[in-house]
User: Which sequence fits this backbone?
């Protein structure tokens, strides 16, 4: 089923027989608005009245033009920032500080350059107060799961971009988060590595089924990975459309799914909606530059 | 046909030979370059020191004012064999090194603590910012006079002056280092539930460490300068005292000899700091530390 739905309708993921229907992992965003004070003392509205729901154990992607407030939305969900109006609830609790059970993955690798691969992955359990021995065992297991056994003692600069992403994925998933927030995590990778990482992310996600909120510029990436694609308007960002992606799971190799007729059909429809926004955002920025 | 196969088989070995030839040629070129650099270095030393010796012995430059390399050597020998009016050279050197080292440690600790504190607190940084700029712009070396008046001719004023000079170098680097911390890293550990002290331990301090350690190279030089200047201003022991005495006796050779001794001490300290840097920053990509070595 592809199509537009009313924005605030609560949807059920189509394939949640295996999914955890854990209420505590539902993200419920209502009327979310965030204003910033610019250095000149003016207020700038980054997002306005954003409303959508992410079902527990589902994978949602937010797509929108540059500067439309996608990252701002994520920051409100994580509790790193407080909304100016509206609210974010995780489970039944309104977010008013750092939410427990959340992991974040950024575009730039947020690895500690001064820690070894093992210590980078271990940081999650260590911060939760897990004894070092257990944390080490857990981290070694996760390094094995992302295929990096034998690289424990390397430093991040000694790894390739794709390997660093794997370390970041292991570090994000080691605490078995309810919610995984991803801010263009594969944006800086080359096309081939990106496809490999996407496939690996899907495999890991199938095993753990955290609720994922995934920001991207790349519509193909959004459709290939997500159950739900949220289109945001250009600044101030708000939700324009929500599309459901009913490609069957497990989706397997992301490279191959791109050529399926169903994929192209869904992608085409979403692009219809996104195109106007991208054009408008481009005109805004080029107008401002002129 | 036969000629074709026979020409084809030796080809790989030819390529292999070419490969090894290339490598040998590369190694030879490297060796030539290293030799050329060393010849250049020795040449510079010979021209400068030899020219100095030649000009002073020929009488074109007055050795009474500008010293003479052979005279400096004599002074060095005298300093180490006969000692000075204030005890052996080792005693005096030990006191100066001690003052510089204590000042270095004190100034570094204070600089790191204040730098990290002000770097991570925007309010404190705004309040203290202008004052730090003012204090940084006054000639701090003059504080030496005040310290000597206040604390006498002992070790304390030297340590303080060295510490004050070191403080600002380290402080500004620590401050900048904290400001340059990757906000993504901070956000990442905060989402994972880190407390402010855990953020400091896992992110802020290790991240600022690069900057702090880079400042230590310059800082030790400043510590030595602080200790020496304070000794020149007034002391009972130390290399600075020997320098000021030699100045009074119109003995430039001994002043130069003291400079040589201090330079050796500073080079040793520099070497130790580089070792510390390598140990603490072993996670860094090698290209950066190499660039720093130059």
Assistant:
């Amino acid at each position: 089923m592809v199509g537009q739905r009313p924005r605030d309708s609560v949807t059920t993921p189509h394939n949640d027989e295996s999914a955890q229907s854990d209420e505590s992992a539902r993200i419920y965003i209502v009327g979310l608005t965030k204003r910033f004070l610019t250095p000149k003392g003016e207020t700038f509205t980054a997002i306005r009245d954003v409303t959508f729901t992410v079902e527990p154990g589902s994978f949602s992607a937010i797509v929108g033009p540059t500067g439309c407030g996608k990252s701002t939305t994520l920051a409100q969900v994580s509790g790193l920032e407080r909304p100016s109006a509206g609210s974010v609830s995780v489970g039944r609790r309104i977010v008013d500080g750092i939410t427990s059970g959340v992991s974040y993955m950024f575009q730039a690798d947020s690895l500690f350059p001064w820690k070894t691969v093992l210590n980078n992955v271990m940081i999650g359990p260590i911060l939760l107060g897990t004894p070092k021995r257990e944390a080490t065992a857990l981290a070694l297991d996760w390094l094995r799961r992302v295929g990096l056994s034998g690289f424990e003692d390397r430093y991040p600069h000694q790894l390739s971009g794709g390997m660093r992403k794997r370390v970041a994925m292991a570090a994000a998933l080691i605490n078995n988060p309810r919610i995984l927030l991803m801010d263009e995590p594969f944006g800086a990778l080359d096309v081939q590595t990106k496809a490999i990482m996407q496939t690996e992310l899907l495999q890991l996600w199938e095993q753990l089924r955290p609720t994922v909120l995934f920001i991207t510029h790349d519509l193909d990436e959004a459709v290939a990975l997500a159950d739900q694609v949220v289109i945001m308007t250009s600044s101030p960002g708000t939700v324009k459309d929500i599309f459901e992606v009913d490609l069957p799971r497990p989706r397997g190799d992301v490279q191959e799914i791109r050529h399926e007729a169903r994929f192209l059909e869904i992608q085409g429809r979403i692009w219809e909606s996104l195109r106007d926004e991208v054009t408008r955002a481009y005109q805004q920025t080029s107008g401002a530059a002129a | 046909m036969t000629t074709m196969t026979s020409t084809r088989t030796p080809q790989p070995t030819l390529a292999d030979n070419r490969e090894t030839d290339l490598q040998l040629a590369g190694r030879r070129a490297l060796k030539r370059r290293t030799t050329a650099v060393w010849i250049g270095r020795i040449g510079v030393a010979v021209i400068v020191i030899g020219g100095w010796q030649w000009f002073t012995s020929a009488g074109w430059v007055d050795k009474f004012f500008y010293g003479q390399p052979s005279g400096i050597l004599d002074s060095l020998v005298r300093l180490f064999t006969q000692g000075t009016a204030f005890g052996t050279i080792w005693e005096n050197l030990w006191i100066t090194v001690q003052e510089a080292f204590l000042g270095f440690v004190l100034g570094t600790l204070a600089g790191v603590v204040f730098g990290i504190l002000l770097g991570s607190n925007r309010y404190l940084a705004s309040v203290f910012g202008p004052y730090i700029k003012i204090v940084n712009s006054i000639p701090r070396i003059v504080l030496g006079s005040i310290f000597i008046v206040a604390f006498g001719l002992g070790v304390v004023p030297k340590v303080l002056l060295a510490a004050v000079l070191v403080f600002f170098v380290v402080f500004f680097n620590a401050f900048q280092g904290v400001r340059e911390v990757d906000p993504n890293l901070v956000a990442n550990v905060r989402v994972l539930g880190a407390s402010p002290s855990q953020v400091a331990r896992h992110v802020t301090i290790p991240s600022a460490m690069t900057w702090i350690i880079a400042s230590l190279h310059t800082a030790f030089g400043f510590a030595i300068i602080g200790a020496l200047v304070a000794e020149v201003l007034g002391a009972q022991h130390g290399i600075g005292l020997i320098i000021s005495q030699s100045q009074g006796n119109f003995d430039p050779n001994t002043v130069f000899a003291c400079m040589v001794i201090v330079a050796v001490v500073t080079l040793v300290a520099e070497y130790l700091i580089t070792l510390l840097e390598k140990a603490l920053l072993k996670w860094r990509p090698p290209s950066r530390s190499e660039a720093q070595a130059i």
